[in-house]
């Protein structure tokens, strides 16, 4: 979908997360750039992809899914290359982000996504039940001692990553993409199946 709007103004339609639609930031962008932002909120990358893939991509100009969904959108021919002539600050992207961009968002010499953030998946615990000086690792999520009181990520990538780190497959996370072997994936699967009986839910 191209940028639209009358009287010289432009409207940018964005599909993003609940937490990314701060009205103060929206107003600042509209004032500084001279555009109108129409925000549609979503709760997951899979829902963004489903709505985009069902033809609703015509409603949006920009989507902000997690990085693992950008290649899906590229493969489904739902994304257009980033216009480097317009995005003049691409040189300011951190080098580590550029590595992700080249390995995950680039195809045929074209770049289809811009990395905007980086973070870690952790776990939280109730300090009334778990000592604050416990050994902090993903082992907590697979510990029989807390059976029935564990809630796991309801997301295949996050849950599998937690299980893989618990199993000691740290080397698989060293590159720009996760590189688990078929045998390791099978072990992760079996570990998660065994864990299920310990869970209060996802």
Automatic annotation (TrEMBL):
Example of a GO MF term: polyamine binding
InterPro entries reported for this sequence: SBP, Sperm_putr-bd
Gene3D superfamilies reported in the protein's UniProt record: Periplasmic binding protein-like II (3.40.190.10)
Gene Ontology BP terms: polyamine transport
Keywords: Periplasm, Signal, Transport
PANTHER family: SPERMIDINE/PUTRESCINE-BINDING PERIPLASMIC PROTEIN, SPERMIDINE_PUTRESCINE-BINDING PERIPLASMIC PROTEIN
Protein name from the UniProt record: Spermidine/putrescine ABC transporter substrate-binding protein
